[in-house]
């Protein structure tokens, strides 16, 4: 069951948008190349919003530390984060960004609950 | 590309001949000894493995626990939000391949600094490279990396104490944090000595733990103002006060007195702060006492191991990184010492130097701190600034963005709850490969 997360107009190339109408919140990214991705917004290492992170080469870097996550698979490249973030399916319908949430359990950082 | 300010100090201050320029310092199958199982030590091991090192790596740590990350010791670990296991650096599903020797003190380093040429005399053989542990054993290695960190400073006892002196709490390692975590903070009157982020984080955490009162002897009216500018100091003070933290008169803490009914912190203006619990967070000194008989060279004031900007010491094959070391660019004032990020980056530089991998540049300095709902992030050469400019936000709204200039040129930025802005700044100033403008070599 997908939901409308935002409009394409809400997105800025190279940046993420935090959507906190769902729990845990998700982040929708528009890359410079024009692709749209949806991930869990919270870094798996510590409570930080990935939407505020740096987007490059289809990865987002946590705004606090060094770890970067793949926008396509959610895989993490290096410490301090050890676990991947969930990736959600995205569909574009006209201007609408439709997101279908992953059914996997989220990998939230210690001390953070959904 | 941004225009970068000229380095404030002459680049030729410290010339250091590259050791092992004919190839890697450490052969791929050589034995690497790492002394110190903290952030820097762990990252050196991980780094050399990622560069294809196949030889043995032995990591010596004096604590009887796996390597862990320290920032949470003053925050989430103290409130109980995270466990010790959560702080382990190594990933159990992808552990770094190394032998960990824990709970054994390392007491000495063997190795010879490059000898001065003597007129054709046959020199005595150089001392073999390796380390001695407290159990009397010698461990030979092909390279040694020193990452023993720093130990917490505390205040001296007042000369007129009538009671036996009780040491204050400090916050440096897991043992300290465990002691404070188990202390009865709820309902206690607490005095925190220190004006740095560690002290302020500890103060915030004590409030969260239900302390009856928390007083911070920060040594200044607006904590952080001297280093980070008045607006930042105002923002920090307003956030702390709003949550009930009291700021003591802006006078330096002088000593501690143990009284029959608690503890007293004496300030230089003769103010006496009384508390059930005193936490000292007034800085740290490099843990290099064990190297006293080695041929290494040290900074005269702090006794940090002197290195060039690849982490190399005067002994070939011996490197140092993290809080126990002072690299050339620290000595020349280009970089501040003691940040988490600094230890991680230095480890990467050392790992590349050891294995002969492509040189890694040090990035702009970066630090962060969480205090209540303030997430403070600073980047750049803030310590060199002579002008601070508020770009956006106000101290009271917890949304401050300030930039730092030196002689009119931007050198740094600080944001309070401005993750996106600080990230952008850091990326604009990122150095990709090649020489860092931050090094003094």
Fold and architecture overview:
The complex is a heterodimer of chains A (114) and B (441). Chain A is mainly beta and 114 residues long. Chain A has one domain: 3-layer Sandwich (Rieske Iron-sulfur Protein), CATH 2.102.10. In chain A, strands 1-9-8-4-3-2 form a six-stranded antiparallel sheet, with no helix packed on it. Chain A has a three-stranded antiparallel sheet with strand order 5-6-7, with no helix packed on it. Chain A is globular and about 40 Å long. The mean pLDDT of chain A is 95. Chain B folds into three domains: 212 residues, FAD/NAD(P)-binding domain; 129 residues, FAD/NAD(P)-binding domain, CATH 3.50.50; 63 residues, FAD/NAD-linked reductase, C-terminal dimerisation domain (Enolase-like, domain 1). In chain B, helix 1 packs parallel to helix 8. At the A-B interface, loops of A face helix 9 of B. Chain A: Its EC number is 1.14.12.19. Chain A: Keywords: 2Fe-2S, Dioxygenase, Iron, Iron-sulfur, Metal-binding, Oxidoreductase. Chain A: Pfam families: Rieske (PF00355). Chain A: This is Bifunctional 3-phenylpropionate/cinnamic acid dioxygenase ferredoxin subunit.
Q: Keyphrases for this structure?
A:
heterodimer, A: 114 residues, mainly beta, Rieske Iron-sulfur Protein, 6-stranded antiparallel beta sheet, 3-stranded antiparallel beta sheet, 37% strand, globular, B: 441 residues, alpha/beta, FAD/NAD(P)-binding domain, Enolase-like, domain 1, 5-stranded parallel beta sheet, 9 helices, 25% strand
């Amino acid at each position: 069951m997908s939901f409308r997360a935002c409009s394409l107009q809400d997105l800025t190339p190279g940046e993420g948008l935090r959507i906190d109408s769902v729990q845990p919140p998700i982040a929708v990214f528009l890359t410079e190349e024009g692709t749209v991705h949806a991930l869990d917004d919270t870094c798996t290492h510590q409570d930080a919003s990935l939407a505020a992170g740096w987007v490059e080469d289809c990865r987002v870097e946590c705004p606090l530390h060094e770890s970067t996550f793949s926008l396509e698979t959610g895989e993490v490249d290096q410490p301090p984060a050890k676990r991947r973030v969930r990736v959600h399916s995205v569909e574009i319908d006209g201007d609408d960004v439709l997101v279908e949430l992953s059914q996997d359990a989220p990998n939230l950082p210690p001390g953070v609950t959904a | 590309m941004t225009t970068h300010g000229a380095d404030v100090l002459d680049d030729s201050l410290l010339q250091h001949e590259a050791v092992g320029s004919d190839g890697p310092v450490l052969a791929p199958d050589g034995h690497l000894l790492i002394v110190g199982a903290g952030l820097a030590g762990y990252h050196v091991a991980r780094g050399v493995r990622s560069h294809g090192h196949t030889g043995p790596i032995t990591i010596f740590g004096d604590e009887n626990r796996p390597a862990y990350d320290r920032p949470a010791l003053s925050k989430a670990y103290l409130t109980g939000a995270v466990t010790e296991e959560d702080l382990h650096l190594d990933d159990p599903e992808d552990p770094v391949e190394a032998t960990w020797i824990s709970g054994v003190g390392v007491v000495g380093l063997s190795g010879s600094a490059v000898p001065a040429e003597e007129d054709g005399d046959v020199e005595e053989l150089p001392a073999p490279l390796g380390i001695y542990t407290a159990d009397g054993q010698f461990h030979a290695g092909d390279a040694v990396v020193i990452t023993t960190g720093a130990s917490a400073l505390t205040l001296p006892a007042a000369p007129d104490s009538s009671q036996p002196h009780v040491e204050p709490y400090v916050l440096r390692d897991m043992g300290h944090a465990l002691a404070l975590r188990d202390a009865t903070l709820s309902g206690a009157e607490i005095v925190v000595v220190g004006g740095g982020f560690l002290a302020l984080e500890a103060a915030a955490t004590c409030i969260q733990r239900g302390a009856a009162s928390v007083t911070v002897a920060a040594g200044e009216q607006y904590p952080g103002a001297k280093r980070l500018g008045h607006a930042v100091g105002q923002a920090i003070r307003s956030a702390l006060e709003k949550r009930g933290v009291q700021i003591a008169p802006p006078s330096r803490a002088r000593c501690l007195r143990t009284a029959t009914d608690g503890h007293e912190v004496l300030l230089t203006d003769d103010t006496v702060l009384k508390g059930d619990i005193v936490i000292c967070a007034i800085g740290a000194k490099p843990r290099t006492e064990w190297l006293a008989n080695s041929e290494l060279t040290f900074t005269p004031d702090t006794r940090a191991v002197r290195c060039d900007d690849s982490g190399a010491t005067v002994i070939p094959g011996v490197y140092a990184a993290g809080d126990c070391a002072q690299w050339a660019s620290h000595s020349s004032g280009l970089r501040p010492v003691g940040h988490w990020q600094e230890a991680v980056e230095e480890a990467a530089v050392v790992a590349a130097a050891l294995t002969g991998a492509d040189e890694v540049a040090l990035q702009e300095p970066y630090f962060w701190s969480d205090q209540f709902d303030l997430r403070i992030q600073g980047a750049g050469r803030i310590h060199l600034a002579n002008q601070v400019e508020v770009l956006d936000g106000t101290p009271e709204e917890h949304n401050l963005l300030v930039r730092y200039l030196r002689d009119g040129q931007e050198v740094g930025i600080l944001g309070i709850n401005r993750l996106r802005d600080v990230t952008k700044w850091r990326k604009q100033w990122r150095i990709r490969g090649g020489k860092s403008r931050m090094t003094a070599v």
